[in-house]
Write a structure and sequence with these properties.
Largest sheet: 9 strands, antiparallel
CATH architecture: Roll
CATH topology: Pnp Oxidase, Chain A
CATH class: Mainly Beta
Strand content: 25-35%
Helix content: 25-40%
Radius of gyration: 20 Å
Length: about 210
């Protein structure tokens, strides 16, 4: 599908619930045939405010937030531990749309992490044990050797979830929906939580 940029994004066309609005746009990105529509840019920062950013995959959405998984000892895991606030951006170029989401990050319940880990391909399960994510390794051969050792260790056995690996949920405080407009009059509609916990929808200048 294509977005007609001559049709502006209006408040009246938006769902009152930003989660429902996000799911609608996400489904439209899937229908547009985009590769990896669940790819998202995740920004975290240290306690001192030094940022870092990387691409990760969205693995679930519910009324509580957006879910992704990683090694808890990775750089992003350590930064989330220091400073549990993060930001996410989805960019769907085929639709000329992006969604920005900001909020607090929390660990998933272990049972949720276990369930997702069990659904992963065996090679990815072994890789979670083998990779000292974000740590310096001597060379690629050393990394391959670690993987092969883990493969041998679990030969003929089920692969358990590593204790240092699991899921996070970003609990949104802000959603911003952006759509490209003609003559750079882009549409930006932001949902934010007010003090009562209700969503407030407002337009931002591009």
């Amino acid at each position: 599908m294509e977005v007609n940029n001559e049709v502006p994004l209006l408040r009246d066309s938006m769902n009152a619930d930003p989660f429902r609005q996000f799911l609608q746009w996400f489904q439209e990105a899937e229908q547009a045939g985009m590769p990896l529509p669940n790819a998202m840019n995740l920004a975290t920062s240290t306690q001192a405010g030094r940022p870092s950013v990387r691409m990760v995959l969205l693995k679930g959405v519910d009324d509580r937030g957006l879910i992704f998984h990683t090694n808890y000892q990775s750089r992003k895991g350590q930064e989330i531990k220091e400073n549990p606030f993060a930001a996410i951006v989805f960019y769907w170029s085929a639709l000329a749309r992006q969604v920005r989401i900001e909020g607090k990050v929390e660990k998933l319940d272990p049972a949720e992490s276990e369930a997702y880990f069990a659904s992963r391909p065996r090679g990815s399960q072994i890789g979670a044990h083998a990779s000292p994510q974000s740590q310096v390794v001597a060379d690629r051969d050393a990394l391959v050797a670690i993987y092969q050792a883990a493969e041998k260790k679990f030969s003929g056995k089920s692969v358990p979830r590593p204790r240092n690996w699991g899921g996070y949920r970003l609990v949104p405080q802000i959603f911003e929906f952006w759509q490209e407009g003609a003559n750079r009059i882009h549409d930006r509609l932001r949902y934010r939580r007010d003090e009562a916990g209700d969503w407030v929808l407002e337009r931002l200048a591009p």
